[in-house]
Write a structure and sequence with these properties.
The complex is a heterotrimer. In chain B, 33% of the residues lie in helices and 21% in strands. Chain B is of the alpha/beta class. Chain B is globular and about 65 Å long. The two termini of chain B are 42 Å apart. Chain C has a single domain, classed as Barwin-like endoglucanases (Beta Barrel), CATH 2.40.40.20. Classes of the chains: A alpha/beta, B alpha/beta, C alpha/beta.
């Protein structure tokens, strides 16, 4: 069977034009996909965890769920973390489990674009959906982002190559500027590569902003960039018809963090006094935007949410996973659709091995390797349907193309089993 | 579910001509019935006020815009933290309440139906996902049409037929209920950082005018026989002198022939923001008397107040350029959010202050509109939540409408501009309970064309509010008592189930989402789909196949079918 | 003839690579994933300074930790900068302090690189996490 216009559940691009062939319940062909997407669809069945496990020993799903319920209901301060590579129904259940247990719910935004959200809460953000870039942008700036490694079809589908309503010439009609500390695949296709010193994005953003405002800076260079070049860049930005900045973890994970984004937002806002300018974070995991979105409508807060007082409280830096683990504050953890043992500084990851950790996963990961309870789950967007939010906030429907392995349920279903168990215990 | 009889209350059911009489209301199987069986549960409403459940026809409760508001304002949430309860989820309140809290708080005020007034079509799934998490109340959402590429294209091409088909298709694709228009043409120009000024301004890339957009969409609306009129946020919102644009826009709709059985062709939303006279924010004054005069002389217009509340709130509209202007005026944090091919939005926190002359004038204008327009069926109570203020302030607005003393007491605390630049101090009118019921449920239900809502006749939905207030003994000087009673219903009954008792939520069923399904002949639809397919491929970043909202997003739906424009 | 240096000071940048993305979708224990993240990239000049042999490992050390991995040449990198793909090996050298933001610093970190050391397997890395040392 041929499926067309399938949504890809890998990165924040959520490309929705995949063509997938399913034969006898297996995916046998895929078109239009990038290398990673191809790998995801074709390998979703390999290296699978086939059975639930408790303490490294195979267990029935029922027993493993019971164990999970026991751990969570006995915990004084459980952490529920992950949620960026699953669909919104699962996210919704995870938030409710956080509420029922009086625990903490955090998602992977805390280690990717959390600082972007902090900046938005401080100064706002001028943004647009990706189609605006496709149809109108004549200037595209990649700042601390490298789609050739992380968002493989972004350039072709959305930002640089495509022809659109007013961008009738495609690539030719766009000026592409890349700001980075090193050469990347993206810098190679730029019209202008602005190479800056590491940890100096904030200074350059502020210098540009000041220059756009018409302020003269009495210096020869900023962040390794000559003032003359900064002035030229500012002029180009002011004089484009529609500019867009796609920024990545180069800004959020280096010194300054949220203040870098604050400066980028300030620059873009300032440019709106001259022309149209927007910015969009390059969200990594395909539904990390959804994790923030669902948590926000349900609790008011996008991540770092503590329910210990019965109502949601928000404090990044305190209720964020890395901090909670590094300080040893949490006494149990449930990890959904994420691999903190492979993505957190070792100091923080280490605590996961010390406390009872429950992990919902499809495949063996460093996190499942140190978990007390492992619950195998279906792959959302391949074996289970649901909603995901694209990096620009556009919601799309993920499909179920094939059945999950026998006895394996979706994240949502497994979380619901745990939630029901917790509610029973509470009564 | 057990039948219910509400006995002995003073009933206000304006659509059925019941004005404070003691009538028993019988509820069975989710509906109002003539008579229930013997074993019905009896609710003693003696000495209390009984009304149909409240119907809010313009609020922002679900979707990307309100969620941006929630996201950007942790400081707002911290003023109003809501713990989880026995039957309820925790969350936050104030100007951008979480979805669960939104449902609870409307129900606690006796409201049972609320309209989300601006749905960007590309984000329709998001709206519906949030509506699923908004408990108790019935809901509907209005897709944005006024700056949609296809609207502009068909208006440019003078192809009314295609536009009709497109409106019908879009309502189905987004599961929308009414045609929402925000600053027609202005948001399209904003995509290049500009705006359009007035009805005859130029929508740049299409060489058309807002006047043409409004006319064409109103024609489509009536030709399709949609239950509600066009729902219009006029051009020039927030610009002193804009009352003229508002009246001109109303005049445009006068030329449109309404659908059979309805006199109106336009609903002007949050009119307060569009009823400003003067030349600038320094000398702004009320244009409400002009608008009231026009509305009193014409029967094709309804409007809602968009009443301002003196508090810190979060403004959010589909009017991108206006929010940009507000950012420039205030320097507050600003989110702009443009949606390809369709719409835009902006969010800026704002504090309405008692010592700000312009704000006091705006406060006066909202009330002037409600009090100077003679016929309560033409003007409805809203705060354009959360733009004028959070919906939880409705009881305060009710008090201002029903008590001149409440207004005077407030005016004493205000900058004197309200006395000099509005006529409010000279208005003695006070709403009756019957008029209040019209303004908050009967009139809004009628305007929306929700035939089973806003009244308590047999066949109506069993949505009822009972307030602990004896209307026969109440005097306007006791307005605080009224505020208290309407803030916290003695009972709210939704679909025949008691959901609120003594102001507390006791049950949280999921309400229905209403949408309009217009019949489109297959050949007309095929023709349209060819157009859509071609342009989607060229300009959208999602495929046409992935665009329409699936049934999964409407676990309980109420479909309103219309016969459409085709015989 | 230049004498090989014992160690060089570098700025460590981490990030995604397409290979790592492909590998992780195959499975984290897979060779393709492990190979994609158990290495650093550095410029030929720096490799020469350290007199690195093609199959000899290097040890990356920061104020916070130390890890041994393979290395490859990347001509586009400037001298004094290394690139380390996100993953369990890179995590050994990052600080978990977030300065109240929730976000650890993973880019532009001061580090040193020297030849030698023993490369750990994924299991050994996970075991070291379990050991809690």
């Amino acid at each position: 069977m041929e499926h067309v216009d399938v949504v890809c559940p890998f990165c924040g691009c959520l490309c929705d034009d995949l063509e997938i062939t399913v034969e006898e319940g297996h995916i046998t062909g895929i078109k239009n996909a990038c290398a990673v997407s191809r790998s995801k669809f074709l390998n979703h069945g390999s290296h699978r965890i086939t059975s639930a496990a408790v303490d490294g020993k195979k267990a029935s799903m029922k027993k493993a769920v019971k164990e999970a319920v026991e751990i969570l209901s006995n915990a004084r301060r459980p952490l529920i973390y992950g949620l960026s590579s699953t669909e919104c129904g699962a996210i919704s259940k995870a938030v409710e489990i956080g509420e029922v247990t009086g625990g903490i719910v955090d998602n992977t935004a805390s280690v990717c674009h959390g600082p972007t959200i902090l900046a938005l809460q401080q100064v706002g953000e001028s943004k647009a959906t990706l189609g605006e870039a496709r149809n109108r942008a004549d200037m595209v700036v990649f700042w601390g982002s490298n789609p050739t490694a992380a968002h493989l079809r972004h350039i072709v589908r959305y930002s640089v190559m495509p022809k659109g309503m007013y961008s009738t010439e495609g690539r030719k009609g766009r000026k592409v500027i890349v700001v980075d500390v090193r050469q990347t695949g993206t810098t190679r296709l730029a019209d202008k590569f602005v190479k800056i010193k590491p940890n100096s994005d904030f200074e350059l953003l502020q210098a540009l902003r000041a220059t756009v405002r018409g302020d003269e800076l009495p210096v020869d260079e900023v962040s390794g960039v000559p003032m003359k070049e900064i002035k030229e860049l500012a002029e180009e930005m002011k004089n484009c018809k529609f500019g867009i900045v796609f920024f990545g973890l180069g800004l959020t994970q280096s010194e300054g963090r949220h203040m870098n984004i604050d400066a980028a937002v300030g620059l873009v806002s300032e440019l709106n006094r001259h022309t149209k300018f927007v910015l969009t974070p390059m969200r990594g995991h395909y539904n990390v935007a959804g994790a923030n979105t669902v948590a926000t409508w349900q609790t008011g807060y996008p991540y770092a949410i503590d329910f210990s007082k019965g109502y949601p409280r928000y404090n990044p830096g305190e209720f964020t996973a890395v901090d909670l683990l590094a300080s040893g504050e949490v006494d149990a953890a449930m990890i959904i659709a994420s691999d903190p043992a492979a993505t957190f500084p070792a100091d923080a990851a280490r605590h996961l091995a010390k406390i009872p950790t429950i992990t919902l996963e499809q495949k063996t990961t460093p996190t499942t390797m140190l978990s007390k309870v492992v619950l195998p789950v279906a792959t959302a967007g391949v074996e289970a349907e649901g909603t995901a939010y694209r990096m620009d906030g556009v919601p799309l429907r993920l499909s179920k193309l094939v059945e999950p392995p026998k006895g394996i349920h979706s994240d949502e279903k497994v979380l619901d089993m745990i939630l029901e168990g917790l509610k029973e215990v509470a009564q | 579910m057990k039948d219910i009889v509400i006995k002995g209350g003073y009933v206000y059911d304006p659509l059925n001509g019941i004005d404070g009489e003691k009538v028993d209301i019988h509820l069975s199987d989710g509906k109002v019935v003539e008579k229930t069986k013997k074993n019905a549960k009896v609710i003693d409403a003696s000495g209390k006020t009984v009304m149909p459940g409240g119907v809010d026809l313009h609020s922002h409760i679900a979707g990307s815009k309100i969620n941006i508001g929630r996201l950007m304002r942790p400081e707002d949430h911290r003023k109003d933290e809501v713990p989880k309860g026995k039957y309820t989820r925790g969350g936050v309140g104030y100007s951008c309440p979480s979805t669960f809290v939104t449902g609870y708080r409307y129900a606690q005020m006796g409201y049972t139906s609320v309209m989300e007034a601006a749905m960007p079509p590309l984000g329709a799934r998001h709206v519906h996902e949030e509506l699923i998490d908004t408990p108790i109340i019935d809901k509907a959402a209005f897709p944005l049409f006024g700056n949609n590429y296809f609207t502009l294209k068909y208006v440019r091409d003078g192809d009314q037929e295609k536009l009709n088909a497109f409106v019908a298709w879009m309502l189905r694709a987004t599961r929308g209920y009414a045609v929402k228009i925000v600053n027609p043409g202005g948001v399209e120009n904003w995509k290049w950082g500009r705006n359009v000024y007035g009805l005859d301004g130029k929508v740049e890339d299409y060489d058309i005018t807002p006047r043409q957009i409004v006319t064409s969409l109103a024609k489509a609306n009536e030709a399709l026989g949609l239950p509600h009129t066009i729902h219009l946020h006029c051009n020039n919102l927030g610009m002193p002198g804009n009352y003229k644009t508002t009246i001109e826009t109303m005049e445009v709709a006068k030329a449109i022939k309404p659908k059979k059985g309805r006199k109106t062709t336009i609903h002007v939303v949050h009119c307060q923001f569009n009823a400003l006279a003067g030349d600038n924010w320094m000398n702004v004054k009320s244009g409400a008397p002009h608008i009231a005069k026009y509305v009193n002389g014409n029967d094709h217009v309804t409007l809602d107040m968009g009443q301002l509340i003196f508090t810190d709130t979060t403004t959010m509209t589909g009017d991108g350029p206006w929010q940009f202007a507000l950012w420039n005026m205030t320097g507050n944090k600003w989110v702009n959010s443009d949606v390809e091919m369709e719409a835009g939005a902006g969010v800026v926190p704002y504090t309405f202050k008692k010592n700000n002359p312009a704000n006091t004038v705006q406060w006066g204008i909202g009330l002037e509109l409600a009090l100077l327009i003679d016929d309560p069926w033409k003007v409805y109570m809203t705060t354009d939540h959360p733009n004028g203020g959070p919906f939880t302030y409705y009881p305060k607005v009710m008090a201002w409408l029903m008590s001149r003393q409440a207004r005077t007491d407030t005016m004493r605390e205000l900058n004197k501009a309200v006395l000099k630049r509005t006529s409010l101090a000279n208005i003695y009118r006070e709403y009756t309970f019957n008029e209040l019921a019209i303004s908050t449920r009967a009139g809004t239900a009628q305007a929306l064309g929700l035939k089973d809502k806003g009244h308590l006749g047999a066949g109506a939905d069993a949505d009822v509010a009972i307030y602990d207030l004896d209307p026969t003994g109440w005097r306007p000087s006791q307005y605080k008592m009224l505020e208290k009673a309407f803030a916290s219903a003695a009972y709210t009954i939704k679909g025949g189930e008691v959901v609120v008792k003594d102001g507390e939520v006791v049950s949280t069923p999921l309400g229905a989402t209403h949408w309009v399904d217009v019949k489109i002949p297959s050949e007309v639809e095929e023709d349209l789909m060819k157009d859509l397919a071609e342009d989607f491929k060229k300009y959208y970043t999602v495929s046409l196949r992935n665009y329409p909202v699936e049934d999964e997003y409407l676990p309980i739906q109420k479909v309103h079918k219309t016969r459409g424009a085709w015989k | 003839m230049v004498t090989a240096l014992d160690k060089i000071e570098v700025t460590l940048i981490s990030g995604r690579t397409a290979k790592q993305g492909v590998g992780l979708e195959e499975g984290k224990p897979s060779e393709s994933y492990v190979d994609s993240v158990r290495l650093i990239q550095l410029c030929p000049g720096d490799a020469e300074k350290l007199d690195l042999k093609e199959d000899s490992p290097v040890t990356v050390t920061t104020e916070h930790g130390s890890v041994t991995v393979h290395w490859v040449e990347e001509k586009t990198l400037e001298s004094g900068m290394i690139f380390f793909p996100y993953g369990p090996w890179a995590n050994q050298v990052y600080n978990s302090v977030t300065d109240g933001t929730g976000m650890p610093i993973m880019k532009a970190v001061k580090a040193t690189v020297e030849a030698g050391g023993k490369v750990q397997s994924l299991t050994e890395i996970v075991d070291s996490l379990k050991g809690g040392s």
